[in-house]
Amino acid sequence: MFTAGAESLIKQAREIQDEDLQKFYTRVSKLLHGKDFGNETVDSLQRLYLIVSATKYSRALPEDVLQLLQDLLCSSKTAEQFQALSCAILRETFPCDLRNLSDEEGNSKTISHVAEVTLAQGSNQDKVSSVAHRVLKCLEARQPEDQINLVSRKLVDWLRYASIQQGVQLSSGGFFTSPRTRQPSPITEVDGAVAADFFTVLSLGQSYTEDQWMNMHAFSMIRKWLLCYSTDGSGNGDTDDKSEVDGSVMSMVSATSTSSRLLPPKERLREKAFEYCHRLIEQSDRKALKKSDAELQKACLIEAVTVMDIICREDPSFVYRAFACVKALYGRLSGDLAFSRALLPIAQFYLNHSETAAVDSEAVYRQLFTRIPSELFQEPMLAFEFTQFCRVNVKVLRESVGIFKHSFPNLFKPLAWNSPALISEYVELLPSLIGPDTAIEILHSLLDLPCLTAALDIQLRSASSQPSERVPLDPSVKVSSSMEAFRHPYYRGMFLYILRDEAGTGDTIDRLSVLHEVLADMADSPRIVQCAQTTPILLQVFFNEAAQFADEKLINQLVLVILERSSLLYDIPNYKREVQRVFSSQLLVLCKLHPSLIVEQCKELMEFSGTTGNIQSKENFYTHVVWAIGEYLSVSYDKRCTVEQITAFFETLEAVLFEITQVRLSASIPTYSPRVITMLLTTLSKLASRSQDLIPRVSLFLSKMRSFARSPAVSSWYSEEDIEEIHTRASELINLLKLPSVAQFVLAPSTEGTSPRWHRDTNTSLPLAMRAISKVLQRDSSFSPG
């Protein structure tokens, strides 16, 4: 409980009126603007702290007072008393942004107060990270060379010279007898044998001595220590160093190691850490008696090879010694999938040092990129570590490892199985796999990614089924499920292709629709649906990368794939719509890069745009195709464009528009959106403006649109807004076509129309044409149809 005087002060602070509070804020502001802070300033700040802390609600201080308090807090020239008071006040206020802490002023006391305010105010992660970064820099500044060397010497002693006897155990005696001390027994290996060499984390005992515990702690931090402090330019090598742990076994043993003591502390630490890792690798070859010890062996292998890699990067003289050990380790582990996680640091070691040691590493990379993603894709941790390995080393892998780019069918397996967890990694990794020779096959593989997920699921279930259930089916038997199809000879080739390990066996398969049919029973699987949700993202990444290097030949191939695969997609909810959305946007990008593709692919585009069924199944994509035809089928973009081609496209689209605007009495007739109709009308008008013999035909068609739009059947299909949209577009187009020269300029503008001169110079044709168009559209109704 507070005293009566304290209670009275708190009550006054809580009940202070706004007018008095504002006067007090003004007084504090004047005091803080002064250069000399006296007792009056201290008293005012103490009163301000009482006011802001007296209630459970945070108070909002005036901006000028808040800024002055922040300046007071963040300046290293401020006296400790005023920094502490500023810190206490700011802790009780609304969160503020402490941005004015410069690197020069960031001493330890100032940073401590800033950190206190940041954490107390519940600031966001970015602010906390910024302050934490400054704390670390401050701590680093406190690590002079002699202290780093001191820690390095201690680490050497802890790693290499720990006791090889178990800790002393006290056995409990009777009630009237004192505990008996047992004689220490030797440390053992994981297979139960007595340890014949120095202590490591794989040495076992019933209890451990203090130096043995320090040995384990030292190994757990040695990797980070080497990365942070074991750089070249390490300090002076004191040749008469004494062990820092006097009176222990490690001191006596280390005193005999005269050759290594001639090394500077950091180099000596590398030497002893290397010996430690070498011993761990030897110990991992022993048969563990307990499963937990076997798992510990695997973890120690990964860490040991990683530390060796760091040591070799810092001092290449260790490379030849390390390779003999790592190569033997790879030979021992390569056939055992239980040690697959250890293959990643081994592959990293080969990647970093095989060139220095002139060692052939092809077998290591082939093992890594074939067996791990193909057989262990279902292990989330390994899949993540494997993907991280590829992402971190992507530049070296792309330039130096030939199998990397051609293993993308295998690399997609962890993605297909773990799509949500790995999507961000593959967004970064995918561009490195795409090249002129792999682009088409990768595009097909991305579109078939949900099929790959289904095939992997079936493969796993088939492997875990009873042997009798894995017998191939009679070819004459009709399958009733995807699992049966997996065992059926007729479908076996399709599954083998989807599950292939390397690229180069073909861009895709001929019977994709059949594969989609047999996988239909798995289309609702959550894993497959998740994979389908990530595919459009990867498709966008693919096209963005392909656009960087695609030549005319590749662009034509990509457009053909887009047209073909827009109809050949796994029937998953929303999947077709999302993929076609990406196709729509990317088709326009490809047309802009290479406008001549409309002429070069006229047969395929005419076939696609002339199929009415494409409107029903992929309306958005169809509309983009029609727009591209109207925009780029012009002699302005390709001198090879002929009147015959324009007429052929016109007649194809005219037939489609005629078919979808026929008024029939059947109630089952499909409804086409006004967007499709207006786009077809516009494209026909564009084509007619480039071949003026077609203008009468399209004008006649446009004049009939009002009767179409006003018919009772159409009125029942479309809203008033839709009908008005069709009618307005038809009226605008027929007005333009009555002046062919104006229509040609508006509907088929020159490719130079984007030049600023066409928009600024009043003597050029664009301003004149705009005025002419305005007059056309403002004329009386005699220009309107009907």
Automatic annotation (TrEMBL):
PANTHER family: AP-5 COMPLEX SUBUNIT ZETA-1 (PTHR46488)
AP-5 complex subunit zeta-1 ARM repeats domain mapped to chain residues: 296-413
Residue ranges of every copy of the AP-5 complex subunit zeta-1 C-terminal TPR domain listed in the record: 425-775
Gene source species: Acipenser ruthenus
Top-rank taxon: Eukaryota
A cellular component term, taken from the record's GO annotations: AP-5 adaptor complex
Protein name: AP-5 complex subunit zeta-1
Residue span, AP-5 complex subunit zeta-1 N-terminal TPR domain: 145-255
UniProt xrefs under InterPro entries: AP5Z1, AP5Z1_ARM, ARM-like, TPR_AP5Z1_C, TPR_AP5Z1_N
Pfam families: SPG48 (PF14764), TPR_AP5Z1 (PF25153), TPR_AP5Z1_C (PF25154)
High-level lineage: Eukaryota, Metazoa, Chordata, Craniata, Vertebrata
